User: What shape does this take?
Amino acid sequence: MDDDPLESGDAIRLLEETHCFPCEVMVKVIGHTQGGFVERALEAIRDFLSLADVPEYRSRVTPNGKYTSITLEPRFDSAGDVLRLYRRMQAVEGVIMVM
Assistant: This one.
């Protein structure tokens, strides 16, 4: 049995129940501030979405400066595309969580 939530039909069903694809979906990536996390994460998102430029985003650093969150709302054609981006982001150095 595969326990990977990104492989679960439940994840796709939930996304499809809460979104009408194609549509924009909020994506939040949290990682270690140091070492170029923001640049690596944004480049991975830009590359995955085949965009010429980095998409519009917001970022916030924790009060102690240890972690940074990046929030953006790219357009996706399907729930599967959202889950593929999540998987891609988990492979980026410094990423702690993708939601």
